[in-house]
Specification:
With about 425 residues, the protein is of the alpha/beta class. The protein has helices at about 5-10, 10-25, 40-45, 70-85, 95-110, 155-165, 185-195, 205-210, 245-260, 265-280, 285-305, 325-330, 330-340, 370-375, 380-395, 400-415; strands at about 30, 55-60, 60, 90, 115-120, 140-145, 145-150, 155, 170-175, 195-200, 225-230, 240-245, 310, 320-325, 345, 345-350, 365. It has 16 helices and 17 strands.
């Protein structure tokens, strides 16, 4: 733990928390689909001297002096992101995915304008207009859903009807807990019909798009993409906004981020983004993203064989949502707790039209990005899925859970968290 030597000497309480978290991540399997392990290179940039520097503005147009090196870092991040996602313009300053979405809304709309996005219970995200969010007080959000929750098919006819009725300024594709691919062409066609911008929130699948194993919305004519830079992209926690080709949209985005929403960008995070984007340009990253999908499919096979209902009938991406209450009589909260006990981390999740509460829903959400980073393949994915189902069925059997925990720990010891990604 020599990389924490200064903290160890100065702040033993925080040192204990850092060491504890490292041990937790090493000993257990991370299946939260929005989490991943980053390289030591990304961590080094994240903890670099760039944390000392204020850099309001953009490369070549800053409000403070001393920017020759921050401009290099931010320009590297921008150019690498352009290449990864086929974008003409990129803003790498948003502090997170939510911040990116809010800035995008203010860039493209006036207060009171309408957004058409995916319903939260059908896989959408809080920032797509959930009633509890502050942004819901500024803009009008209307929603589309799945036509068939057993297949994941979106009701595009209803989407078009709602768009014609409400004339949204933005039609938003993207999700937080949806396991199929969207028909981006249909979104574009409907948007053209009603004069709306097309925006894709690809926070979850950005890495899959960069790796070439998921479709790129820009190939179908989308105007804007928002994303996080962690999750499948395997970078630091942060956000990003990409514009396909429209310079006027890009100017509006830049103004909305700074000075509209944020002050000084977090240059240490932007430097870490540059490192991660460089890693994502390598052939190894393409192999990695392809394995993510293979591992998710392997888990799907086990859950289906065990009679556990999967939302959307399975997965085409990195995540799965399972109705464990309907299938096993285990609530989402119970499942999360029991699996934590055996060393598997995931999250409780509402299923489509769930009758249970968000804090103890019917489902769980899990995915394969982090386990795949450790080098695990289909065999390990199959084993983990079997352990998950066994543990949920044995939720009150302490001896069985202890046995399963040893199996998980042995698996983790065979696949340590890597420090290098390239």
């Amino acid at each position: 733990m020599e990389h924490y030597s200064f903290i160890k000497a100065q702040d033993p309480e925080l040192y204990a928390a850092l060491v504890g978290e490292e041990a937790r991540e090493a000993r257990g399997v991370e299946l939260i689909p929005s989490e991943n392990y980053v390289s030591r290179a990304v961590l080094e940039a994240n903890g670099s001297v760039f944390t000392n520097k204020y850099s309001e503005g953009y490369p070549g147009k800053r409000y403070y002096g001393g920017q020759q090196y921050t401009d290099i870092a931010e320009s590297l991040a921008i150019e690498r992101a352009k290449q990864l996602f086929k974008a003409k313009y990129v803003n790498v300053q948003p502090l997170g995915g939510a911040a990116a979405n809010v800035a995008m809304y203010f860039a493209l709309m006036e207060p009171g304008d309408t957004v058409l996005g995916m319903d939260l219970s059908h896989g959408g995200h809080l920032t797509h207009g959930h009633p509890t969010t502050a942004i819901n007080k500024v803009f009008n959000f209307v929603r589309y859903k799945m036509k068939d929750v057993e297949t994941g098919e979106i009701d595009y006819e209803e989407l078009r009807r709602v768009a014609l009725e409400h004339k949204p300024k933005i039609i938003l594709a993207g999700f937080s807990a949806y396991s199929r691919e969207l028909d981006y062409q249909k979104f574009v066609d409907i948007a053209k019909e009603v004069g709306a911008y097309t925006v894709a929130d690809m926070a979850h699948i950005a890495g899959l798009i960069a790796g070439g194993v998921a479709k790129n919305p820009f190939d179908y004519g989308f105007d804007v993409i928002t994303t996080t830079t962690h999750k499948t992209l395997r970078g630091p926690r942060g956000g990003m906004i990409l514009v396909r080709e429209d310079e006027e949209i890009a100017k509006k985005i830049n103004k909305a981020v700074f000075p509209g929403m944020q002050g000084g960008p977090h240059m240490h995070i932007i430097a870490a983004k540059a490192v991660a984007f460089g890693e994502a340009q390598t052939p190894a990253f393409k192999v990695y993203t392809a394995q993510i999908l293979k591992n998710a499919k392997a888990m799907e096979v086990v859950f289906k064989a065990e009679g556990v209902r999967l939302l959307c009938g399975g997965t085409d991406n990195h995540l799965l949502v399972a109705d464990v209450f309907g299938s096993l009589g285990v609530t989402g909260q119970e499942a999360e707790t029991v699996l934590d006990e055996v060393g598997i981390t995931l999250n409780k999740n509402m299923i489509a039209d769930d009758t249970r509460s968000a804090m103890d829903p019917s489902g769980i959400r899990f995915g394969t990005p982090a386990m795949t980073t450790r080098g695990m393949k289909e065999g390990e994915a199959t084993k983990l899925a079997e352990v998950m189902v066994t543990a949920m069925r044995a939720k009150t059997d302490a001896a069985k859970k202890a046995e399963l925990q040893k199996e998980v720990q042995a698996l983790c010891e065979s696949f340590p968290v890597p420090e290098k990604m390239v």
